[in-house]
Structure formats: C-alpha cells, structure tokens
Input
Amino acid sequence: MTDKHIPDDTILYLNGVSVSFDGFKAINGLSLVLKEGELRAVIGPNGAGKSTMMDIITGKTRPDVGDVYFKGEIDLTQHDEADIANLGIGRKFQKPSVIETLTVWENLELALAGNRTPLQSLFFKLTKENHKQLTDMAAYINLDDQKETVAGDISHGQKQWLEIGMLLLQEPEVLLVDEPAAGMTDEETFKTADLLRDVAKSRSVIVVEHDMEFVKALDCKVTVLHEGSVLSEGTLDAVQNDEQVIEVYLGR
Ligand SMILES: Nc1ncnc2c1ncn2[C@@H]1O[C@H](COP(=O)(O)OP(=O)(O)OP(=O)(O)O)[C@@H](O)[C@H]1O
Output
C-alpha cells in the first residue's frame, strides 16, 4: 500500500510529475486523476506534453520526480513498458500498426493469441468460445463485413478500429488512445466517438485529440495541457470559455 491519499475509485493517479529533456521541462508538475470507468479527453497545443504524458504512464519515459499510480497502489515508475502493458494499460498509437498482409480476422486472432506465452501462442487453436469472441469483436468495431478483407485494403479509419479491437481483446483496464480521428472522414470520426464512449462503459479511456468536433462528440471531461502541466479542466464548453485557454490557443 502507498501512503498517498488516493481515492478508492481512482484508476490512474499522477501527482507533481516532471520530466526534462536536455534541461527542457516537457512535463512540469503535472497532476491528473482518472476514475474507474472514466472517459477523458486530453487536448493542448503542439508540444504541450500530451505524448510525453502517455509515455510516462506506459513506462516508455521515466519521470524525474512525481507519483504515477495505477489502481491506487501500483507504482508505475517501478515497472517497465512490457510490465505495464501486462498490468492492464493498453496504448494505441496514432499510426495504426495492424499487419496489412493479414485479414481483419487474422489480425484479431493474432491479438487474442498475443495474450499467451510465445509457446502457447505457437500452438494456439481457436476454441468455439474464442471464435465467438472474435466474431463479436469484429461486429463491435464495425468490421463485420470486412472480416476476410486484408487489412491493407480497408480504410484508414477502419484500420484504427481494427487496432482498437485488437487492444480490447487483451482486456486492458485503461486504454490510452492517441489522435484516433486524425485522417478520418466525418462519418468515421463520429463512429469512433460512439465506439470509445461505449468502450468506456467497461474500462477507463484517455483520448489525446486535436479535432474539437470529435472531442465534443466524446462528451466527457476535458483536460487542457500547456507547457507540461494542466492549464484547465472541465466540460468542453467550460475549457473553451476559459480565458487562459483562449490565450494559449489564439495567442491573445
Ligand atoms: N525524447 C525527447 N527528447 C527531447 N525533447 C523531447 C522528447 N520528447 C518530447 N520532447 C519535447 O517535449 C515537448 C513535449 O512534447 P510532446 O510530444 O509530449 O507534446 P505533444 O503535446 O504530444 O505535441 P503534439 O500535439 O505535437 O504531438 C516538446 O517540446 C518536445 O519537443
């Protein structure tokens, strides 16, 4: 147990986190509390520290100082990237990393096998239950009709959904999603917002995004980062009307 007073329903707890690169403070006293089952959008101008924050949560970057706790008692600064993924924090990078020469179904199958040890996955055979799991997931991510299509032939938006589906098969408790709507059509953007809102009914989700229409569709609490710390937090309306946020975005 930690001596920090972290509320029971907190899944991620960042407090006073800072990290410098060559003397430049990319993250500067950052504090953020994410509740179980919460969907949170993180916005902020280029260089605000959004990716670095995700890197710290997932163990890619070690903070110089500060607390980073998962589920109240797991000190994430003491774990490496592989450990943190296994603990239940999944991350989707901006660029989809599906295997383009495999079908949608095969990509999903691979993600399911990925939950096993290398030896187990070598001999992995789909059970009836696994088959249903993959069929349900394909439908859930709007790819029911594309199951047999090679991933290289589906749209950019569909690739993003496929990757979200692959991550969900690993059943993370927290899903971190980096700019999912970039390069999507309007229809795909809104479907993605629907999907992530639904995902957040059974786990916690942080979405980093620039597209304000998408953030509006997510309909959740918004955190604005600037120069490595939280500038404002609240509803999208509240942060968009915050004088400090207006100044940072519009340079007034
Ligand atoms: N490994 C690194 N070495 C040096 N500087 C870095 C490193 N990683 C990030 N930075 C710097 O830290 C700052 C924050 O970068 P970060 O990528 O986290 O911002 P961001 O909010 O994700 O920006 P964007 O919206 O452009 O992706 C930037 O000034 C960046 O140049």
Summary: The two ends are 46 Å apart (CA to CA). DSSP finds ten helices and ten strands in the chain.
